[in-house]
Design brief:
about 230 residues, 8 helices, elongated
């Protein structure tokens, strides 16, 4: 039976994972296709070339980013399971050393030796709880959500697609790619400012500085791509 704190903690972890993945996908989705479209605008004869290349990049980028998120989630799960197995073996093989590690944890919190012994005996009575304690407090590992890899892949991939189509949309409505770039720059810079603001609010940074930082990175990438394309034209 889990108490309300457990459910709040679990919900917090899941929402943190979702926000992290969304930020990863949206950051690259807004920046990479924008830079690609800007670069092509300097050399392409029509806006349709930019949209075709942009869509191809968004498809490839979302798959690559999603797979990266999936593999990262799988690695996290595999790492947790390997450490869990090792902790069970150590509790069986060297219980006194593991008990000493519990004492060290509570000694750091200022508990007296007598209080440490009471806690050690209470925890070590139940092997599962003992191992869970060691995983959390010795190794700093929380049990990952078993759906973490799948959820991460979907969140990152979809966020990349959403972010990627923002700079690309203006090119669907113009013939001249340079005109498309002007509208795309305005739309994307606005999107980057808004995204950077909310990203900074969520992560506890100064939202104005964070917003300008995210926007300047996107603008610098697009400018560099445009100038390089012009240079090799």
């Amino acid at each position: 039976m889990h108490g309300p704190d457990h459910h709040l903690h679990e919900k917090h972890l899941k929402s943190s994972d979702f926000i992290t993945d969304m930020v990863i996908g949206m950051s690259d989705g807004l920046t990479v296709p924008f830079a690609l479209a800007a670069g092509l605008s300097g050399v392409a004869g029509s806006a349709s070339i930019v949209t075709a290349a942009g869509i191809a990049e968004i498809v490839a980028g979302s798959i690559a980013m999603g797979l990266g998120g999936f593999l990262a989630g799988q690695t996290e799960q595999e790492h947790y399971e390997a450490e869990l197995k090792r902790e069970y073996e150590e509790v069986e093989r060297v219980p006194e050393r593991e008990k000493e590690e519990i004492r060290e944890v509570f000694e750091a919190y200022g508990l007296s030796p007598e209080a440490q012994e009471i806690v050690v005996e209470a925890i070590s009575k139940d092997k599962d709880k003992w191992v869970d304690f060691m995983m959390r407090f010795e190794l700093g590992l929380e049990k990952p959500n078993p759906n973490r890899a799948r959820n991460s892949a979907l969140t990152i991939g979809i966020s990349y697609i959403v972010g990627g189509f923002i700079p690309l949309l203006p090119y669907f409505y113009v013939n001249n790619p340079v005109d498309g770039l002007q509208y795309s720059a305005a739309v994307t810079i606005l999107a980057l400012l808004i995204f950077g603001y909310f990203k900074s609010k969520v992560t506890g940074q100064n939202p104005i500085i964070g917003s300008l930082k995210v926007t300047s990175i996107g603008a610098a990438a697009a400018t560099a791509a445009f100038l390089v394309a012009k240079l090799f034209q």
